[in-house]
Write a structure and sequence with these properties.
Number of domains: 2
CATH class of the largest domain: Alpha Beta
Bound molecules: adenosine-5'-monophosphate-propyl ester
Shape: globular
CATH architecture of the largest domain: 3-Layer(aba) Sandwich
CATH superfamily of the largest domain: ANL, N-terminal domain
CATH topology of the largest domain: Rossmann fold
Largest sheet: 9 strands, mixed
Strand content: 15-25%
Low-confidence stretches: none
């Protein structure tokens, strides 16, 4: 059987998920089909509002039928257990439905954020060896330009194409779900580190047992809630807490395809009577910046529970929320793509310490350790580490066991975050131990941005850092070295920004660019981003013993 930390506890939570009689498990059974078996098929599952204000609703039965059609369609197209099938879609219902349709076939569902450009898509589709992808007419152009370079990609299904729509319509809405083993892979998504290309983080079906437990504790979800998680399923929060856990718990879930807009968001809360809201600090700071008067224009009294994730939630926006939402405030939660579910949080019963991430969930062993794996004293900074294994943790890094192994040291999973623990066991985020950037809550690897910049004619090299920003947490700043005959103009900065948006991603472009003559490097030629950052912030540059002449 399993050997997870707190295994007895997880065995006692076995009922969180719906098992087949053969002790197999497919997350889609718990997320969707079991609701029909339990007589809740007619309950409202999804409320979708598009950019134009059109509202569409789906019951659990309708989601089951639709995802079964997708699963039948995929099976007809020879998608088999273990195949990778990716979704490159805006936040429309098909994204949620097709995710589950893919999982029903036993294939691995992968998501890619709709702002990705062709190079980012190519890296992900190539590394995963994806066999099929769902996209829209509008987004398909970015796939077509790279399709010849992806021999394993057999199908590009365009969900708003008439042929696809009519083919899908003809499929049966009955499907015999694949009985996956609990440890089989269910979904994957790519995330960034300091170096190299993005890594494919892979999660297993059994992880749902912990994901559901965490949602019960950290999001306080109840049967009659109308729940809005603003994260896009291109990121892990949008998968785990806006598809898997909420629907498993039978909670009516709201999705909005439009972009962030403070007034629009307040109006959506009032219109749909949202009760539980899970969002990110950048959005909260942007709402706060719009002023209190705007909040008075809308009836926000339906809100019952608020939570936040993805980057540090500083005390100011938190205390602002407490004032505006009449005593209710955003409960900060900490986790990562790799951990698969919330690990540390301000749960409803713990007393708030503004600025703290809260305490480890009861079934999580978290510690602050030094580089040798020894716990540090209370109040001291160290590496935030978790005792492995736990049910929702990543099972592998796709085709990169070396990278997977590098997360574990001295019997601990090392998160890459620096943090402190106080005398009362509250955790306080300090920063990243590496150069990973968090901009508007989204994780960006500096190497990917540097690579995109270098691919522009006229750029010799580039160094990229996260620069602290009051609203976005960090913004991306690039230091760029140009060829001698290229003029360092403002116009060129705009061109470089457009280039990164097109090739890498709309959200990952450098908001600030500075042209410089030379980058600080180690003698072995590695860019020392730490020095770029120290200079930018006017801080001492520290140990330069490995620095080449600069
Ligand atoms: O640095 C931490 C930050 O986000 C990283 C994980 O990013 P990602 O894999 O994209 O997952 C985001 C949401 C699950 C962490 O290593 N982070 C996440 N939550 C917090 C946070 N930093 C401070 N406070 C948080 N609550």
């Amino acid at each position: 059987m399993n050997s997870f930390t707190n295994n007895e506890f997880w065995e006692s939570k076995s009922d969180n998920v719906s098992w087949f009689t053969d002790t197999n498990l497919n997350i889609a059974q718990t997320v969707l089909d079991k609701h029909i078996l339990e007589g809740n098929g007619d309950k409202k599952a999804l409320i979708f509002e598009d950019d134009q204000g059109n509202v569409t609703e789906f019951t659990f039965s309708q989601l089951v039928s639709q995802s079964n059609k997708v699963a039948n369609f995929l099976s007809k197209n020879v998608i088999n257990k273990g195949d990778r099938v990716f979704l490159f879609l805006p936040r429309v219902p098909d994204l949620y439905i097709n995710f589950l349709g893919i999982v029903k076939t036993g294939a691995i569902a992968g998501t890619m954020f709709s702002a990705f450009g062709s190079d980012a898509l190519k890296d992900r589709l190539e590394n995963s060896g994806a066999k099929a992808i769902f996209t829209t007419k509008e987004l398909a152009d970015r796939i077509q330009t790279i399709r010849d370079e992806l021999p394993e990609l057999k199908h590009v299904f365009i969900i708003d194409d008439e042929d696809y729509i009519s083919d899908l319509e003809k499929e049966s809405d009955v499907f015999s779900m694949f009985h996956t083993r609990p440890e089989d892979y269910a979904f994957m998504l790519y995330t960034s580190g300091t170096t190299g290309k993005p890594k494919g983080i892979v999660h297993a079906h059994y992880g749902l047992i912990q994901q559901i437990e965490s949602a019960k504790i950290c999001l306080d979800l109840k049967d009659d809630d109308i729940y809005w998680c603003t994260a896009d399923p291109g990121w892990v929060t949008g998968i785990v807490y806006s598809i898997l856990t909420n629907l498993s718990l039978g909670v009516t879930t709201f999705i909005h395809s439009g972009r962030f807009d403070p007034e629009k968001w307040y109006s959506l809360i009032a219109k749909h009577k949202i009760t539980v809201w899970y969002t990110a600090p950048t959005a909260i700071r942007m709402l706060m910046a719009k002023g209190d008067a705007l909040t008075e224009k809308y009836d926000l009294s339906s809100l019952r529970y608020l939570a936040s994730v993805g980057e540090p939630l500083n005390p100011e926006p938190l205390l602002w929320s407490k004032k505006i939402f009449k005593g209710k405030y955003f409960h900060d939660t900490w986790w990562q793509t790799e951990t698969g579910s919330i690990m540390i949080a301000n749960t409803p019963e713990i007393e708030l310490k503004p600025g703290s991430m809260g305490k480890p969930l009861p079934f999580v062993t978290a510690e602050i350790i030094d580089d040798d794996g020894n716990p540090v004293a209370a109040g001291e900074e160290g590496n935030l580490a978790i005792k492995p294994p736990w049910p929702s943790m990543m099972r592998t890094v796709w085709q990169n066991t070396e990278k997977y192994d590098s997360y574990f040291k001295n019997g601990w999973y090392i998160s890459g975050d620096r943090a402190k623990k106080d005398e009362e066991g509250y955790f306080w985020f300090v920063g990243r131990a590496d150069d990973v950037i968090k901009t508007s809550g989204e994780r960006v690897g500096p190497f990917e941005v540097e690579s995109a910049l270098i691919s522009f004619e006229g750029v010799v090299e580039a160094g990229v850092i996260g620069k602290p920003d009051d609203i976005r947490g960090e913004i991306i700043k690039a230091f760029v070295v140009l060829k001698p005959d290229v003029d360092a103009t403002e116009e060129l900065k705009t061109k470089l920004q457009e280039h990164v948006k097109k090739h890498l991603a709309g959200h990952a472009y450098p908001r600030e660019i500075e042209f410089i003559d030379k980058l600080p490097k180690t003698r072995s030629g590695k860019i020392m981003r730490r020095i770029l950052k120290a200079k930018e912030l006017g801080q001492p540059i520290g140990d330069t013993s490995t620095l080449e002449e600069y």
